[in-house]
Amino acid sequence: MLGYLKKILYVLPASNFHLLLAAFVFILTSGVEALGIGILGPFIALASDFDMIERTPLLSQLRDSLGIAQESHFVALVGLMAVLIFLLRTLIVGGTQIFIARFSNQQQRALIIKMARGYLEAPYIYHISKNTSAIIDRLIEIANTFSTLVFMPLLIALANTFLFIALFCLLCFTSLPMVIALLATLLPILLFFNSLASKVRGWGRQMRESKADIIQIVNHAFGSVKETKVIGCENYFENQIIYQAEKLEKVQRTFVAFKLLPRFFMESILVIIVVAIICFSVLINEEGIAETTSVLGIFTLAALRLLPAINNIVISITQIRASSFTLNQIHYELSELDSLRYRTEADRQQKASVLERKPMPDTKFNAGLNTIQEAGVSNTFRFDKQIRLEGITYHYPNSDKPVISDLSLTISKGDSIAFIGKSGAGKTTLVDILLGLLIPQSGDLMVDNDSIYQNLRAWKDLIAYIPQSIFLTDESIEKNIAFGVPEHLIDRKKISEAIEVAQLTEVINALPNGLSTLVGERGILLSGGQRQRVGIARAIYHDRQILVLDEATAALDNETEKLVTDSIASLSSSSRLTLITIAHRLTTIKNCDKIYMLDAGEVVKSGNYKEVVENVRT
Length: 618
Ligand SMILES: Nc1ncnc2c1ncn2[C@@H]1O[C@H](COP(=O)(O)OP(=O)(O)OP(=O)(O)O)[C@@H](O)[C@H]1O
Description:
CATH superfamily of the largest domain: ABC transporter type 1, transmembrane domain
GO molecular function: ABC-type transporter activity; ATP binding; ATP hydrolysis activity; ATPase-coupled lipid transmembrane transporter activity
CATH class of the largest domain: Mainly Alpha
Bound molecules: adenosine-5'-triphosphate
CATH architecture of the largest domain: Up-down Bundle
Low-confidence stretches: 354-378
Strand order of the largest sheet: 6-7-8-3-9-10
Domain ABC transmembrane type-1: 20-322
Strand content: 5-15%
Protein name: Heterocyst differentiation ATP-binding protein HepA
CATH topology of the largest domain: ABC transporter transmembrane region fold
Membrane topology: Multi-pass membrane protein
Number of helices: 22
Helix content: 55-70%
Radius of gyration: 36 Å
Main location: membrane
Mean pLDDT: 79
Distance between the termini: 74 Å
């Protein structure tokens, strides 16, 4: 259990102060609850035996000081006090229940934010190997499971443990032999449930895996619904979902039944003990059980509350055990994200220090989620002359073989350059290095006289990336062009300029709601070419000085391709925009100032179109 606790505390976003506050609330509630129960027993005894007032000095003193002559009136007053204390106890206990629910919901919110921040700040290399459905599953399902099936049960177990201690003390004070009888009966049952711990953990693991598998199957089936429909594999996915749903139902059924067991056991024990005590009292005291009424009253009430408390502790521990797989997953994920964060920052610092340059403040990197709001903040780099790649060597973490080997080249500001080469030559990897997404093991990337590794965020602020397939959000075209800018900050003039350059004017005029037309999930309402033009408009809107086009015109028809290429080229010459293109279609790079042909991560040829492409063809 200590291991679980350590992991829960690591995952929990709550501060130690809040946890201490929670513990204090639970202790207070348990005390009030024990007092509420403790007062009812003596009242029942007093109501059935008025002589008790004379026998108990405290009661007779209270009666005299209140000046009440009639005993029945005094008993009624004590009853009223008991009711008030009991009502106060109910209020506090109810408040604690609300506190538990609110506290764990707050933790769920904070955990979703903590994980989302971790994923968003994680380096690109982390995301290359990650499955999107796994991230969605972690953010939504696991955060919810942690809050409702780990943290809430932990709070309930804690609250009930304090209550158990308070009631146990009350019972020990009332009748020790009865407590010993109760414990002797309960202990074997608790040991029995404890012995099934590994089975419970197994059930929890199966439930979690089935849920994650269902999300993944749904993602596979609908992620490429076109292929699913054309190939006709709907049945295949349906059968997989049926199999997982049935597996989930079976385990859940067993688990729910198991969770009900402790209550039945304990209720039976309570009845047996109370009946046994009454019979025993009658047998040894033939005149009845008046003597034991008070003890029995407290015992019955305390046991009525004690047994549910034990039940809650057992169920909560069972629940936490069943969720241990989830806890391990979330703990692993967060520690991985944490270590990545430290490593990335350390790598960057190390690179900057190896280069013996003092790192500039990386404001956006540190700002985390505020990055989007900060878009447009002036960068700290001057880019007036050139970008220089100096002896860049890169290999992916899972292999020692360099994909880019000792590569050096210079790109002048305002130039339009292209990388060509056969599949696997290293074009995409080189562009990812240029984008600052992959950090080379050796070499440097200089912009004028500064290394980009001094301030990667500022470097990225100079660049726009237009991929082969543009990601569009299910929002208006306008919001897709001003991607990441809050609606009230969108600059309409810049939107018009971007639309013109990207040759989108006609497309938008033909749409029913013009710029406000919703493009549908993944831009399904637009053609491939139109989607790419929205991507180009997005880059132009964000005023970037360097455009990286990853075969960005591949989805355009010949006529539109010429229009887009020409307008980007004219933009390049008029505003000294620097263009870096990865191209397969050699027609798109005819106007480039310089073309680099890559092979096995090295530049094997460079020059203008005639020198590189036409010579190769002949
Ligand atoms: N995440 C990765 N992990 C390991 N190796 C990788 C990874 N991504 C790419 N590679 C390898 O790096 C080499 C270069 O790949 P890259 O994608 O840069 O080539 P490319 O020239 O862009 O190819 P294409 O034109 O087909 O996109 C290839 O051998 C590829 O297998």
